[in-house]
Amino acid sequence: MNKFSRIGFILTAAGSAVGLGNIWRFPYITGEYGGGAFILVYLLAILFIGLTVFLAEAVIGQNGQADVSTSFVTLSKTKNKNWKYAGFMVATGLIILSFYSVVLGWILDYMIKSFVFLPTEAKIAGENFENLISNDISSLLLYHTIIAGTVVFIVLKGIKEGIEKINLILMPLLGLILFGLLIYAFTLDSFSQAVSFMFSPDFSKIDSNALLAALGQAFFTLSLGVGTILTYSASLPKNANIVKSSFIVASVDTMIALVAGLIIFTFLFTAGAKSAAGPGLVFISLPVIFSSWGILGNIIAVSFFLALVFAGITSAVSMIEPSLRFFIERFKISRVKATILCGTTFYILGIIALLSMSKSFGEVLTFFGKNAFDIMDFASSSIMMPIAAIMICIFLGYFVEKKTLEEKFTKHTSYTIFSIWYFLIRYIVPVAIIILFLNKLGAI
Ligand code: PFF
Ligand code: NA
Questions:
Q1: Which residues pair with 77 in a beta bridge?
Q2: Residues forming beta bridges with residue 370, ordered by sequence position
Q3: What is the dihedral of CA 198, 200, 201, 204, to 10 degrees?
Q4: Sign of the dihedral through C-alpha 359, 363, 368, 371
Q5: Residue 346's closest CA among 90, 67, 20, 61?
Q6: Which atom of ligand 1 has the smallest separation from the CA of 22?
Q7: Which CATH architecture does the domain made up of 6-440 adopt?
Q8: Least C-beta-crowded within 10 Å: which of 86, 140, 231, 425?
Q9: What is the 331 CA–ligand 2 centroid distance (Å)?
Q10: What does the domain layout of the chain look like in residue ranges?
């Protein structure tokens, strides 16, 4: 049977969740918003909002045992066919994958170069990064092709032999590398400084921007609003305990983000560097610090970027699966055909994204003052993901028989947990997402 084993599902869903969002994005936004208080808000957002939507996707998928569109229709009270339009969300994963693959390409470049070369000064590191993304088109194309090829190769083999297998291998390796780096960080004097930066909240630093950033990060980090968790859950046996699995996956994702933060902030503070370095933190600040550690620095740098590659690949694989399943089941085409179709789409979009950051093509690929890369990022995370998440909440909260949902939950957990979840999905989460959405569109 093409179904996940219990541990297979947990590692695969965790593989989707744990990605660049944890190791690259979480530390730099935590740095920008000042540490402890931001993390506290983030943890609340994961617990009350992220986990609620995660459970929602898992319920729809496990119940439907099909692609996003079909699963929505099956679960709706009236079997209203119009719910098939929820299937639009499968496109979001392809768009995210386009630029995610490009960023993974940068990381691959950093990993390879770190064997022999690390910049000794921030100025040089900055120029190197700039040079890679704006001039070195041939390398970027090569790396994007390698990443896209790897993703296609894995998903072609299907759920069991491809996706589950790669996660069963890469996730433990990722855990091992991060554990090693954490132990090393622990031996450094700045470890305690990193701990207090991350865990002593200073609430004067929290404003509405920080709240919204925490909420947005909670969604992105748990892979929500893309149909990924829904589609993976559709390959779960009907009696598997999704409530427990969802808790485990959200906890693993959170743990890894916190560990990545501890490692990175310890390294930064050791060198007396600033915590608020923005997106360049991993590509500019860290390499300079590694270079001051001699050969050990090279080893740590390579391990670090390798961890990012592993984390990123398992997430990338999960972004394409909703659209594959959609085409396979709705249009009755083979997995190979669907993979060629979706693979070509994101590969080409990725080329457009990477060219749009270059000196030579940047101008023609800039629209309304944003380059194609930023447009894809904005359209997916700020528009399509929130719309899908709102739709999921409204659907379960108002268009599905309460009894059906209650049964799904109480099979595995208490009625209290169900009532809390039901309350959150009906009233709290949709409102929170609508606020986030309007804010991102610049309305409030
Ligand atoms: N959760 C991934 C991360 O934190 O990097 C990103 C992601 C994966 C977003 C899969 C969306 C998705 F469908
Ligand atoms: Na994540």
A1: none
A2: 367
A3: -110
A4: negative
A5: 90
A6: 4
A7: Up-down Bundle (1.20)
A8: 86
A9: 31
A10: 6-440
Whose Cα sits closest to atom 7 in ligand 1?
Answer: 223
For tokens 């740590």, name the residue. 300
Partnered with residue 366 across adjacent β-strands are 371
Beta-bridge mates of residue 367: 370
Position 393: which residue type? C
Q: What is the DSSP string of 66-125?
A: S-HHHHHHHHSTT--GGGGGGGGGHHHHHHHHHHHHHHHHHHHHHHHHHTT---SSHHHH
Distance CA(62)–CA(239), nearest Å, equals 9
- Tell me which H or E stretch contains 425: none
Predicted TM-score of the model (pTM): 0.95
Protein residue whose Cα sits closest to atom 12 of ligand 1: 223
Q: Which atom of ligand 1 is nearest to the CA of 312?
A: 5
Q: Which ligand is nearest to the CA of 20?
A: 1
- Say yes or no: ipTM exceeds 0.95: yes
Q: What amino acid occupies position 424?
A: L
Residue 366 per-residue DSSP state: E
Tens-of-pLDDT digits for all 444 residues of the chain?
589 999 999 999 999 999 999 999 999 999 999 999 999 999 999 999 999 999 999 999 999 999 999 999 999 999 999 999 999 999 999 999 999 999 999 999 999 999 999 999 989 999 999 999 999 999 999 999 999 999 999 999 999 999 999 999 999 999 999 999 999 999 999 999 999 999 999 898 888 889 989 999 999 999 999 999 999 999 999 999 999 999 999 999 999 999 999 999 999 999 888 887 778 889 999 999 999 999 999 999 999 999 999 999 999 999 999 999 999 999 999 999 999 999 999 999 999 999 999 999 999 999 988 999 999 999 999 899 999 999 999 999 999 999 999 999 999 999 999 999 999 999 999 999 999 889 888 876
Evaluate whether 241 touches 58 at the Cβ level (below 8 Å): no
Q: Which long-range contacts (CB under 8 A, 24 or more apart) does 125-131 make?
A: 125/283, 125/284, 125/285, 125/287, 125/288, 126/280, 126/284, 129/280, 129/283, 129/284
Pocket of ligand 1 (CB under 6 A): 16-17, 19-22, 93, 96, 220-221, 223, 226, 228, 315, 318-319
The values of phi and psi at residue 378, to 5°, are -65, -50
Cα→Cα distances 263→15, 286, 295, 306, 314, Å: 20, 11, 19, 15, 21
Dist. CA 405–CA 1, nearest whole Å: 26
